[in-house]
Write a structure and sequence with these properties.
This protein is an alpha+beta fold. 17% of the residues lie in helices and 31% in strands. The chain has one domain: Carbonic Anhydrase II. A hairpin with a 2-residue loop joins strand 6 and strand 7. It is globular, with a radius of gyration of 17 Å.
Length: 250
């Protein structure tokens, strides 16, 4: 156990682009979701991406047969505003400073949130039209805690509509957003699944405490189309669990 945490600490220092930057991987070797730069080849594109091919705790996963457990409630306290960016792989929002997510005795700071279409995690083999990832960092250890939320068509969601209206169309473009509270993208009930995994993009570092909300959030179908017009497919396929347990809040 101690050796695992030690190795995880080394990975945090050496292989985590999110610990010091708020963009995904706009720099460095080119990668994507199709062809020779697609997920099946990420591990061979660069030695820094080795975990993408040989890692044993890769993400995303399909949520099936989760074990009910007494896991802590999630308590988000996020701030409005930030900067929205098209980073060439997704639309990402650099979060306003001071936002936190508390899970039991552990508190994470919200760094950024971004979107995938379709969803990266599956539930009983089913994908959802979109998935939002809220990326947090633990202030003391640097560990990442990522909360995934599924997005499905339904009534308009004011927060997502405001973001969709501001989506930068070209990679590298960014703009400030004011008055947009990311808490509006959370379901009213925060039951969740939890497991240990990795970043779902290169370098696929196995440093993430994953939390995936059980209940999806409804957003306007036209706003989903605004995202898929830019990124019609930016989801990594599900990986094998490799004896990991997926825990389910009771």
């Amino acid at each position: 156990m101690e050796r695992r945490h030690f190795l995880r600490g080394l990975a945090l220092l050496a292989a985590c682009p999110l610990c010091t930057k708020t963009t995904f991987a706009a720099e460095g070797v080119h990668w994507g979701y199709e062809g020779d730069a697609g997920p099946e080849h990420w591990g061979s594109l660069s030695k820094e991406n080795n975990a993408c091919s040989v890692g044993q705790q890769q993400s995303p996963l399909g949520h099936r047969g989760a074990i009910k457990a007494d896991i802590p409630d999630l308590v988000p306290d996020w701030k409005s505003g930030g900067t929205i960016l098209n980073n060439g792989h997704t639309i990402q929002v650099k979060a306003a400073p001071g936002g936190t997510l508390r899970r039991g005795a552990r508190t994470y700071e919200l760094v950024q949130y971004h979107f995938h279409a379709p969803s990266e995690h599956l539930v009983e083999g089913k994908a959802f039209p979109m998935e939002a990832h809220f990326v947090h960092k633990h202030a003391e250890t640097g560990a990442l805690g990522v909360l995934g939320v599924f997005l499905v068509p339904g009534p308009s969601n004011a927060v997502f509509s405001n973001l969709a209206a501001a989506f930068p169309h070209k990679p590298g473009e960014e703009a400030a957003i004011a008055g947009v509270d990311p808490s509006g993208l959370l379901p009213s009930t925060l039951g969740y699944w939890a497991y240990e995994g990795s970043l779902t993009t290169p370098p696929c570092s196995e440093i993430v405490d994953w939390m995936v909300a059980m209940h999806p959030v409804e957003v306007d179908a036209d706003d989903i189309k605004k995202f898929t017009a830019l990124y019609s497919m930016n989801a990594r396929r599900v990986l094998v669990t490799n004896r990991r347990y997926i825990l389910s809040s009771s």
